[in-house]
Amino acid sequence: MINKQVLWNLLVCAAFLFSSCSSVMRPPPASPFMDSYNRNNVVQNQAFTYYAGDLDNSKHETSGSGHYSHAEWWGDFNFARYINSDYFTIGWGQQTITSFLQTGFVTPYLGVTGWSNLFFFTEDTRKKFSGGVMVIEQVPLNDKWTIGFTEHFSRNGREFYYTNDESCEGVSMFCNTSERHPKFYTEIGGGFYISRKLKQDKLKIALEARYGRDITEEKNRYTLTLNFWTTTPMIPFAGNDGMRKAAKNNLKKTNNLKTAFINKRTRKIEDNDSLFSTRTDSLHSISRQWFKLFNKSQTLSETYTPRDSVTAVTTTGICYDSKANAVWLMQDYGNIVYQVSADSLDYCQKSERDSQIAPAITEGIVASLIGGPLTGSFFGGIAIGVGVGTAFGIPLTFILDEPKKNANVCSEKHTKEQIIEWLKQYPCGGELKE
Q1: Burial class (CB in 10 A: 0-12, 13-18, 19+), 63
Q2: What DSSP line would sit under 91-108, residue for residue?
Q3: Please, are residues 27 and 132 in contact by the beta-carbon 8 Å criterion?
Q4: Which of 23, 52, 233, 434 is deepest in the core (most CB within 10 A)?
């Protein structure tokens, strides 16, 4: 059965492929941008926005040899991704058929963001630029609920069509030579939002309401947005300095943990106390295995919470010191091993490799949507999307060995006797098992 996220991305991609590009846009949602703060992963947002008020729509005018029609859409679909580094966030995405870039300053309580369509980089900047700035104040109510307030100043747009009636003379009654042009207006306004965390921070939802005053044509417009966002693995060429932050956290943990280095060639554990001394303990190579820990502060590896009250880690190396009643585990990636009491862990099933097809498709879609306007070619955008998606998916799928996280991880509980009996097959200083 096809993965739901893959199917969703394919449907979104198909919708964009059958649409043409536009230069008009309106302010993007605020809540997912604010939630990008201090995240190692990429925030991926999907939203639907409904517009009401003095919309300039379905109006027709006749002038000279042609006629004009106005089309201000009553709704928008927003697809965006945000990457954070400390207090700085950059994002990109699609608002219906308009590609845009977004960046700004973000903290847990205050954010300032700016956005622009991709025509900012062309010679038609003055004629086709649409963008703006927004100030966001946020107040976390508790672990699940958050409220926020926004103030924005932007240059919004709507479509403006012109049909040359003279070119249709003597032609079929179905003649359609409409030319689409953007028509822009300046807006100032504000709003608020409320968001809630679902599924242990894996999914969040928000409802945003906003009022905008069109100071160009003196009109009032109202916006209601429903957001859904999740997090996906960090793309290889960006992120929020995850390795640096992980190293800082591990440095604090080493004060309370017994750690050592593993010689990957000999699989010998080399003691930290002396650079030249080598212990007789040896690490056994195993397929990536899950282990349940009763205290997540006892590990240098990445910790996972597949469900409430469960903390788990993975490793590809282990040895059991029966005299000390301790287990040496290898860090997820690297050459550091750490010691855990045999009484404070439980063994789980082998780890399954997590498929990266959905993130690869998502990256390909975003790249194709940005690449199309930049290259000025539909097929050029598709080629860029295929290249980026492939370059993203292959390393994550076949090199990094990302473990699959699901609700069944560490669901089986073993007795103390069963745990010790299982650990005995990997004795420290014994014959290595490859």
Answers
A1: exposed
A2: EEEEETTEEEEEEEEE-S
A3: yes
A4: 23
Query: Residues in the chain, how many?
Result: 434
Indicate the Cα dihedral angle 71, 72, 74, 78, nearest 10°.
Answer: 110
Q: How would you classify the pairing of strands 145-164 and 131-140? A: antiparallel
Segment 288-314 shows an average pLDDT of 82
Q: Return the ∠ at Cα 229 (arms to 223 and 231), rounded to 5°.
A: 155
Q: With contact defined as beta carbons under 8 Å apart, do 24 and 156 qualify? A: yes
Query: Helices 4-17 and 357-375: crossing angle, nearest 10°?
Result: 10
d(CA 116, CA 338): 48
**Higher-scoring residue by pLDDT: 368, 37:** 37
Could you please report the per-residue DSSP string of 187-217? EEEEEEEEEEEETTTTEEEEEEEEEEEETTT
Q: Nearest Cα to 27, choosing from 155, 158, 148, 204? A: 155
- What is the reported pTM? 0.56
Range 180-199 burial, b when 16+ CB lie within 10 A, else e = eebbbbebebebebebebee
One-character DSSP codes across 9-45: HHHHHHHHHTS-------PPPSHHHHHTTT-SSEEEE
Per-residue pLDDT averaged across 366-381, rounded?
71
Q: Among positive and negative, which fits the CA dihedral 233, 239, 243, 245?
A: negative
Q: Please state, in angstroms and rounded to a whole number, the distance separating the CA atoms of residues 71 and 51.
A: 13
Furthest C-alpha separation in the chain? 98
Q: Kindly list the domain boundaries of the chain, sorted by start residue.
A: 23-232, 242-352+403-423, 357-398
Cβ-contact 110, 69 below 8 angstroms: no
pLDDT tens for residues 239-260?
445 555 666 666 666 667 788 8
Return d(Cα 282, Cα 427) in angstroms, integer. Answer: 8
Q: Count Cα atoms within 13 angstroms, Cβ side, for 402.
A: 16
Total Cβ atoms within 10 A of residue 212 = 24
**In the CATH hierarchy, which fold is given to the domain comprising 23-232?**
Porin (2.40.160)
Calpha distance 314→410 (Å, rounded): 11
For the stretch 11-66, pLDDT in tens is 555 544 444 467 788 999 999 999 998 887 788 899 999 999 888 765 666 666 66
Sign of the four-CA dihedral 76, 25, 94, 131: negative
